[in-house]
Amino acid sequence: MMKITQANSNEGKEYIEFLKKRAEDVQNDVNIVVDKILQDIKTRGDDAIIEYTKKFDSKFITLENIIVTATEIKNAYKMVDKDFLEAITLAKQNVREFHEKQVKNPWMMKKEKGVVLGQTVRGIESVGIYVPGGTAAYPSTVIMNAIPAKVAGVKNLVMVTPPTLDGSVNPHILVAADIAGVDQIYKVGGAQAIAGLAFGTETISKVDKIVGPGNIYVAMAKKNVFGYVDIDMIAGPSEILIIADENSNEKYIAADLMSQAEHDVLASAMLITTSRELADKVVCELGVQIKAMSRKDIISESLERYGVILIVQNIKEAIDLANKIAPEHLEVLLDNPFDFLGDIKNAGSIFLGSYSPEPLGDYIAGPNHVLPTSGSARFFSPLSVDDFIKKSSYIYYTKEALSEVADNVVKLTEVEGLTAHGNSIKVRLES
Fold first, then answer.
1. Is the predicted pLDDT of residue 136 greater than 90, yes or no?
2. Whether residue 61 is found in the same domain as residue 182
3. Element (H or E) spanning 108, and its range?
4. Number of domains present in the structure of the chain
5. Is 383 a domain residue?
6. Are both 123 and 240 inside the same structural domain?
7. Which of 93, 146, 195, 401 suits a disulfide with 113, CB 3.0-4.6 Å?
8. Looking at the structure, do residues 52 and 198 belong to the same domain, yes or no?
């Protein structure tokens, strides 16, 4: 089910390189399809939106019902149970509490001779959230994308999500969107939804930024509209890496590996351990637990193709290897996990100890579950309030203050050959 190999063997090194490239093979073919859709939406607007939505999602979608109504949201509340409402409300509270700690304040500094410098911080005016729909409905994704935007002060927060075959939207998604404060919801998905948000149509308003996960068509569409709008990140297949030793619990490890493998056949589940005995126990435990999983076929294929157990000599080697892989999710299932936190440089989100499994972060703990994948945790961060703000700097100089630095400014303009820049300074100081 999962291969076991020495981390420093050729097989171990080849696996790490293979992991980085697992989604590249399909991108070229996908881009051809995505480019056609983007250009079609840009040229034909609403007509193309409806055409693609009928083709890919529901034949019942029209311009008259593409926007979710207040009545539909009210009815959605009747279709979800009390336990869901309690859980999603707790998730909202925890996510808001965590992200409120990230808020940045504007600042001003006053210097000699009346100089004033500062920075303003404002929420982006309009943001679009993509939320997978249909059979893959994730209300947690609504919370994780919408709450940081609202905390940042985004004024116009819209959501796009694919309708089901009958033209409706999953009620759990609608309730989550209402609780999170989403302002408007469109029943459209795929690359066509990204195009609608990026370019605008007669019905869908253009936004300034697009966030949220989706399939590879959505990911490529986001990549291709970057520049027309901002985006959060290009998310690849999900991944988890677990660091464990001989004292770790094989049942917990097996369960956590499967929790990511069930996402997608391209998902990657990895274990780095100092114990060959533990590795063997984990493989046996996977065979036991997988039988009860509803998505066992996906889990099995994912673990077979992209799962691996890497044996290392010590925990330092394990952490060094984890930093090289830079996983989306990193679990440290060791005694005294805080002892190792300072050595972890590259990970999207870090889960410390035996009772902090990755799904806790996916749903309820508070930190964001929109995370960098495919090694991009080396230079990307989780989705945060920072992704929904923009900053402007400001400058105020008196004539006296300008006079003091004028010669320095002019000298630099002359070195760069920009005489009009220098003239802009000189004309203000002429008698």
1. no
2. yes
3. strand 107-110
4. 3
5. no
6. no
7. 401
8. yes
The answer on 157 and 36 residing in a single domain is yes
Answer whether residue 386 shows pLDDT above 80. yes
pLDDT score of 183? 97
Share of the chain above pLDDT 90, in %: 88
Helix, strand, or coil here: 397?
coil
| Range in 169-173, 372-376, 412-416 with the lowest mean pLDDT | 372-376
Domain span including residue 319: 3-23+236-365
User: Do 227 and 240 belong to one domain?
Assistant: no
Look at residues 231, 261, 288 and tell me which one is the last residue of a structural domain: 231
Of the candidates 373, 379, 378, the residue with the CA atom closest to the CA atom of residue 241 = 373
Residue 373 lies in a domain: no
Does residue 154 fall inside a structural domain?
yes
Instruction: Compute the average pLDDT of residues 207-228.
Output: 94
The strand order across the sheet containing 3-6 reads 3-6, 308-311, 268-273, 239-244, 329-333, 349-352
Same domain assignment for residues 84 and 209: yes
Question: From CA 375, how far away is CA 385, in angstroms rounded?
Answer: 22
Cα separation of the two ends of the chain: 84
Residues 271 and 284 in one domain: yes
Catalytically active residues are 328-329
| Coarse DSSP helix, strand, coil percentages of the chain, rounded to the nearest 5 percent | 50, 15, 35
Containing 198, the helix (H) or strand (E) segment is: helix 190-199
Q: Which residues are annotated as a binding site?
A: 130, 192, 215, 238, 260, 263, 329, 362, 416, 421
Alpha carbons 205 and 355: distance in angstroms, whole number: 44
| Paired strand residues for 392 | 120
- Residues 296 and 359: their CA atoms lie apart, in Å, by 17
Q: Is the pLDDT of residue 22 over 70?
A: no
Contacts of 386 (CB under 8 A, 6+ apart): 102, 104
Which residues are CB-contacts of 408 (< 8 A; sequence separation ≥ 6)? none
Domain-located, residue 422: yes
List residues forming the annotated binding site for substrate.
238, 260, 263, 329, 362, 416, 421
Last residue of a domain, one of 365, 389, 415: 365
pLDDT score at 101: 97
Token duo for residue 335:
């005694």
* 26 pLDDT above the threshold of 70: no
Q: Name 187's bridge partners.
A: 161
Point out the annotated binding site for Zn(2+).
260, 263, 362, 421
407 and 326 part of one domain: no
